[in-house]
Amino acid sequence: MRQRLSPDCFNLPIEQIKSGYFSDSYFLRTQEILDKDNHHPRVIMQVFQRQHAIVCGVDEAIAILKKCAHNPDSLVIHALYDGDQIEPWETVMTIEGDLANFSHLETVYLGSLSRQSKIATNVQRVVQVANGKPVLFFPSRFDHYAVQAADGYAAHIGGVFGVSTPANGALWDAEALGTIPHSLIAAYGGDTIRATKAFDTHTDPHIGRVALIDFSNDCVATALAVAREMGDSLGGVRLDTADTLVDASVLPYMGTFKPTGVCAQLVLNVRQALDREGFNHVKIMVSGGFNVERIKQFEANNVPVDVYAVGSSLFNDNINFTADVVMVNGQPSGKVGRSYRPNPRLTLVK
User: Fold this and answer.
1) How much is the pLDDT for 123?
2) Which residue range is the domain that position 284 belongs to?
């Protein structure tokens, strides 16, 4: 039997959610009107979205309902599982009960479903085009810290290999991965070798030794210098050349391709240079503006990348969920175009 995350896993601001602090005001007014009018029909709320996607945020939505409804024990919830592939308009969850009991939660649970499904879907698309190569989830610096745990879990559902912050891995017990930032190299006066050796000396031995090699905009020379110094202990190098720069090793090849940033020629130059000196064991990680199309192009051209670190593109696009009352006291009551669509894939939430 498939498992769901326990509602206790989520660090929900329960009292604020129950008070309606995060809710659209018309949902709060709906609850107030129903209570004051003593009108308590039993409804079925149906949740869906409009794209091919991978659903995520289901377990958090369930936690919101179970922790923040006024009488959660009276609700009957059927839902898909995090990680299920979904079709446009497919029902992913139904909530049955007194609308006044959970109307205030619609904004909150739809938000969890929308954000996490977006990230899980975007990650899965990247993973699929990477041809089995590890993809690292590195976009946390581009959004608010409070969403990191849910984002990291969604990335895990999408198939990511690793994450960058402890919060990203909190819900699935993953250790944060990371290389060397430019700031550490700058702190050592721009000396990549000194910074890498300091990292090697003072970092837990089980952490992979991956050197960042674009600080001086001469990735080939820096990669070789670090590899000669580190020898077999160097596990990899990371290329992160800015999209406004042309690396020194690419200048002789310019003329028939876009030469800026981490281009294919730069990766090839670094790979060939390392191999010529016997550093075949050193892996190449790339970062900086990678998305589905760019990775697909690299893979189609057999660019010798070993690991992709992907950032802000995983936040692009939107997958928006909607909820509608479709049945009232056992009778159809949805608006035109939003009829009840039973889904045999839904399972009862215990």
Assistant:
1) 97
2) 131-315
